[in-house]
């Protein structure tokens, strides 16, 4: 069930005050106050429905799953303006005023309003992982495990460049959501993945290549369930990602995070490239003991974090089993 928190007089990073921002969320698993809290941040076209009917992370979250709803309370917020509440009044038009830091602050306001002062884990993939990094910097003592997946603590020039292309398509195309999705899908996969899947096959009835049909269908599906203002906002947020902005260098900022940091990269990710994650891990090892690095091996690129569940489960199970074992001891 979709719940809502009213956030009043919220000041954005740029100094603008928003009189009202609705923050919707969903809870899964154990009741609040009765179990460790896991915060799940959704990706660009995702939402708070992470488990149960139509849950987009059902392979990881549920009864007996890696993040076991029998042992944890899972909370997933919707990024304000993502349109999941189907309320047109809550859509955001001035999207360039918002940053990932603003979203992370809003999420903390939501947690505090629910009397949550500490969480066992914050986990997210892609955009959700970037928000997780920022949440950990904003409240460095309130997260036990930070798990950013297929993401980065910063927007590289490559990410910024692709955000610009997406923004141009979204603001200038006659069919903006569908056309932007065509470009995005090729960032989320790899040539090897595409070539292996379609093998230059054609659909004789439609007189098109199957890869063309696949891309066009992805565009249509997203257009049917996603709002243009939401896409513009989520895309823009990706370029605002930088935990060092107005703070200091990466090592100094990241070293303040008390959480165990579990970086999960994808070896073929063409969007948030694994090389950047490896560099960060090697640098952080010099100042921080509780830092861990895992790499998904896949031909599927960025989207592997939504495909290679067996590998992801292998990386995550020790983190969440540790808490489950502690629960048994304290029972």
UniProtKB/TrEMBL annotation:
<protein>
    <submittedName>
        <fullName>Alpha/beta fold hydrolase</fullName>
    </submittedName>
</protein>
<feature type="domain" description="AB hydrolase-1">
    <location>
        <begin position="36"/>
        <end position="158"/>
    </location>
</feature>
<dbReference type="Pfam" id="PF00561">
    <property type="entry name" value="Abhydrolase_1"/>
</dbReference>
<dbReference type="InterPro" id="IPR000073">
    <property type="entry name" value="AB_hydrolase_1"/>
</dbReference>
<dbReference type="InterPro" id="IPR008220">
    <property type="entry name" value="HAT_MetX-like"/>
</dbReference>
<dbReference type="InterPro" id="IPR029058">
    <property type="entry name" value="AB_hydrolase_fold"/>
</dbReference>
<keyword id="KW-0378">Hydrolase</keyword>
<dbReference type="GO" id="GO:0016787">
    <property type="term" value="F:hydrolase activity"/>
</dbReference>
<keyword id="KW-0808">Transferase</keyword>
